[in-house]
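Researcher: Here's the sequence for the chain we discussed earlier.
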Amino acid sequence: MKTRWMLFVLIAVLPLMVVWAIDARKIIENVQERYDDMTDATLTFSQSVRFKVSKAEQSVKGTLLFKKPNKYFIETEDRTVVTDGKTSWSWSPRNHQVVIDNYKEETHALSPEQLLLSYPKDYFSTLVGEEKLAGQSVYVLKLTPKEDNAFATAMKIWVSKDWLIRKVEITDINGAVTTYIIEKISVDQDLPDAKFTYQVPEKAEVIDLR
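Model: Thanks. This is the structure I predict for it:
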């Protein structure tokens, strides 16, 4: 009878032991190792912003190309931002205007690399649990900033079992909530450096801040 009872307890507890065999620290390490192994990435994403006061919501789809070190190409319907690690270009088709500046690595802001590929280092992380996202099981983590002047007051990140970030939710100081969902991602495609330079459109207004 005692043996049967112990077997019952083991069967009941074992699934819980498996579920909690990983913690936030290990998930972060796995994501960072996956990022460290990358040389480049291409992804498509959707972005939505929900404003606290007006309750209005805006959404847009975009494409992000990334190559180490510090090369980005981000394109949405209302803006294109490109940097080769030395120069940055920001193109507004609505205004037919491009702003050119020296590339600056922001200390407290989250770059596209940190936001959608790597793991923010200036935040404490807690594992909330698991849930389904686009048909696959993902880990959900809650992040709180270590410093008062952080880019976001709160964040949540969804991480798939192949250690890629699949969704990010950011709450800013004004209470607005921005959500990014990565719809497709491909890594290590040997992207050419030419992808990360920008040809200024003909007759565009150029604002050069260099």
